[in-house]
């Protein structure tokens, strides 16, 4: 979503980086410090997991959440079993079906006396201050907004006047209950991430974790929660919320949730095998050593070259130690010259490198595809294997999806890397300059051959069904040409241009690829 606003500004107003910020934010307000509870072993979840954790010293347990229903159920059941605390951190939090059902679970927990801390980036909160203030009014619930826009000036103007400030966002996604179980991955809170919207079902990935990983996620959350960039929603609003507004919003939510009793989400929450497994402590976790890696919140305030605050610095050794195979899932993939050189070196020393990303036809952020497309030939020449999602997004659909982070139905949104079928990263990190340099991210690297092999085997078995394989050939005239091989209507088909696209769309992407804006993609 941010990328679209930023590109519009770059094209319309030159020299924006020279402008100084003029928007004001509240100062000299109270931001009480708070931290994750550490004495939660006697909670229901603590008791459930205690014996398994003892049997696996130094390791954490993991359950991969591939489909949207399971991802929703896992969050909702954990929230329903919370006794002490729920910590929620997301980039986007939509006011839709999934958003309402998720909010309802948080409020129910708060009503039971559970402390709920909700930290959301301000990028997607336009027009949602009242709803945030109502949640914050609950005595057991506190809402903070990360890196907020001023409420006294229009947002578009602030993209101009606060360039380099509001253009850097908190993209982290984490959910932790009683400091005993956490969920990390690529999903924000919204219909399209949990398969509630038939026109917007992203191919996404989360992981439910227990054990020492959860404590590391809580440490990360506390750093962001207590950061100078995290503003209590109450200090951003000039007018305090009224009892009438609180009552009205609560009634609206209750009525809406009651109307969803027969929905697949609430039915799955009651009857799905995962819901029963969590409640009955029968989840089969896969165990391994793990490292939670994340950007420090100060990254947003620091110069780009201060990489000691960057997740990428922590991730670098895993890339460098690859010996045989690297699999990359990245919906936004803009490797740049340095990334292309690194992947080329891997391929030249015999490492099999396979990358799945979105195609031009499955991506509604065309400028990102422009940044990626100019590196395709170099990667293919080096022997890197490229795959692009075999999905079509019409012009009308692209227009309808404007403002959403992601792309068309079943487009890729998962962010994961598999190292030598031995370790796997799952998190919020795209491989593009914005994620690596500008925004903040979080993820976990799991040392589990079982999980890594399972993910790799899934890639082997499904890649031909869901993606085009790119090939670089030389024509009779000696000129290089790219081909896209895939399945269309059940039959093998080869395209000699970006599949499902017209001339003018390809021309526009080609033009954007020559603009000097790659560092912002």
Tell me the CATH topology of the largest domain: Endonuclease, Chain A
CATH homologous superfamily caption of the largest domain = Endonuclease Chain A
Number of domains: 2
Largest sheet: 18 strands, mixed
Structural class: alpha+beta
Nearest-integer average pLDDT: 90
N- to C-terminal distance: 11 Å
Question: What are the salient characteristics of this protein?
Answer:
single chain; 521 residues; alpha+beta; Endonuclease, Chain A; 2 domains; 37% helix
What do you see in this structure?
The chain contains 19 helices and 18 strands. With 521 residues, the chain is an alpha+beta fold. It has an 18-stranded mixed β-sheet, with helices on both faces. Strand 16 (467-474) and strand 17 (480-488) form a beta hairpin. The longest helix has 18 residues, at 449-466.
């Amino acid at each position: 979503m941010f990328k679209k606003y930023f590109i519009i500004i770059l094209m319309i107003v030159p020299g924006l980086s020279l402008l100084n910020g003029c928007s004001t934010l509240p100062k000299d307000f109270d931001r009480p410090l708070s931290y994750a509870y550490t004495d939660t072993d006697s909670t229901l979840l603590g008791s459930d997991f205690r014996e398994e954790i003892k049997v696996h010293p130094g390791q954490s347990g993991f359950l991969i959440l591939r489909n949207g229903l399971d991802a929703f159920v896992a969050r909702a059941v954990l929230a329903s079993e919370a006794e002490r605390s729920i910590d929620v951190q997301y980039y986007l939090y939509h006011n839709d079906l999934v958003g309402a059902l998720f909010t309802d679970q948080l409020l129910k927990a708060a009503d039971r006396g559970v402390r709920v801390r909700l930290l959301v980036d301000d990028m997607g909160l336009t027009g949602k201050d009242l709803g945030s203030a109502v949640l914050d009014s609950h005595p057991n619930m506190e809402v903070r907004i990360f890196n907020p826009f001023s409420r006294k000036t229009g947002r578009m103007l602030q993209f101009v006047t606060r360039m380099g400030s509001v253009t850097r966002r908190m993209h982290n996604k984490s959910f932790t209950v009683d400091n005993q179980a956490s969920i990390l991955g690529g999903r924000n809170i919204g219909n399209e991430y949990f398969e509630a919207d038939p026109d917007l079902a992203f191919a996404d990935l989360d992981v439910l974790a227990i054990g020492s990983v959860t404590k590391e996620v809580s440490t990360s959350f506390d750093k962001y929660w207590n950061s100078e960039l995290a503003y209590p929603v109450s200090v951003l609003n000039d007018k305090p919320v009224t009892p009438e507004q609180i009552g009205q919003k609560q009634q609206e939510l209750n009525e809406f949730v009651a109307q969803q009793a027969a929905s697949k989400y609430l039915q799955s929450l009651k009857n799905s095998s995962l819901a029963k497994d969590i409640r009955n402590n029968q989840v089969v976790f896969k165990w391994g050593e793990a490292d939670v890696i994340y950007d420090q919140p100060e990254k947003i305030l620091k110069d780009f070259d201060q990489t000691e605050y960057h997740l990428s610095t922590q991730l670098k050794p895993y890339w460098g130690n690859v010996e045989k195979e690297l699999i990359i899932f990245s919906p936004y993939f803009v490797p740049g010259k340095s990334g292309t050189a690194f992947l080329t070196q891997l391929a030249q020393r015999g490492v099999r490198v396979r990358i799945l990303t979105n195609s031009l036809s499955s991506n509604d952020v065309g400028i990102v595809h422009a940044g990626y497309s100019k590196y395709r030939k170099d990667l293919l020449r080096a022997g890197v294997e490229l795959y692009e999602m075999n999905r079509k997004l019409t012009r009308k659909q692209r227009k309808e999806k404007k403002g959403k982070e992601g792309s068309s139905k079943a487009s890729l949104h998962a962010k994961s890397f598999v190292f030598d079928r031995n370790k796997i990263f799952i998190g919020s990190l795209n491989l593009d300059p914005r994620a690596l340099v500008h925004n903040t991210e979080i993820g976990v690297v799991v040392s589990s051959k079982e999980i890594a092999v399972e993910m790799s085997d899934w890639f082997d078995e499904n890649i031909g069904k869901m993606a085009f394989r790119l090939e670089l050939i030389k024509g009779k005239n000696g000129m290089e040409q790219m081909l896209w091989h895939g399945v269309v209507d059940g039959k093998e088909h080869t395209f000699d241009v970006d599949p499902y696209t017209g001339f003018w769309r390809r021309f526009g992407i080609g033009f954007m690829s020559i603009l000097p804006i790659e560092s912002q993609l």
